Automatic annotation (TrEMBL):
One of its GO terms (molecular function) is ATP binding. It holds the Pfam family AAA_33. Its EC number is 2.7.1.12. This is Gluconokinase. One of its GO terms (cellular component) is cytoplasm. It catalyses: D-gluconate + ATP = 6-phospho-D-gluconate + ADP + H(+). One of its GO terms (biological process) is D-gluconate metabolic process. NCBIfam families: therm_gnt_kin. Pathway: Carbohydrate acid metabolism. The keyword Ribosomal protein does not apply. It comes from Teredinibacter turnerae (strain ATCC 39867 / T7901).
Length: 175
């Protein structure tokens, strides 16, 4: 593994997005470690009612997601205003939610993890202890508004190893 240190010229929110099971938490954690910055998992900011709703096999509605996304936007503002960079693992399924995060302070970099539904389903089945059941994967893909007209979002394909994805993401930052 490359152990070069990378630095960010200004406080930056690195948002790693994708459907559940795409590996966004793992990549965001790896990037945070390599960059020496904080890591946040958007799932930790869901109210218990949202988690219970998903755990029961029901997808969230946009009305349920919006207050959660606003909490995330506020947290990004707090961190960036304090001069701290961070990574955020965040589904980012809806364009309006991505736009809300764009309204937060400071520089933002978005990475969108993409892959086949079959590969992501395999990963979801293999993981344990997560509140999101594999049965909701179709609803994740149904809710996803692909960021095809959003040039600030960098796609990364999950067929690559986590080490390769980390290096691909880091290549977008100046050493």
């Amino acid at each position: 593994m490359n152990t070069c240190n990378y630095s960010l010229a200004e406080p930056t929110a690195i948002i790693v997005m994708g459907v559940s099971g795409s590996g966004k938490t793992t990549l965001a954690q790896h990037l945070a470690k390599r960059l020496g910055i904080a890591f946040l998992d958007a799932d930790d900011f869901h109210p218990a009612t949202n988690k219970a709703h998903m755990a029961s096999g029901k997808p969230l509605t946009d009305a349920m997601r919006l207050p959660w996304v606003d909490i995330l936007r506020q947290r990004l503002n707090t961190e960036i205003t304090a001069g701290r960079s961070l990574t955020l693992a965040f589904s980012g399924l809806r364009k309006s939610h991505r736009e809300l995060l764009r309204q937060s302070q400071g520089q933002k970099v978005f990475f969108h993890l993409t892959g086949t539904k079959a590969l992501i389903a395999e990963r979801m089945i293999a993981r344990s202890g997560h509140f999101m059941p594999e049965s909701l994967l179709d609803s994740q893909f149904d809710a996803l508004e692909p960021p095809i007209s959003e040039p600030d979002i960098i796609p990364l394909h999950i067929e690559h190893s986590i080490e390769q994805l980390t290096e691909q993401a880091l290549s977008h930052f100046h050493r």
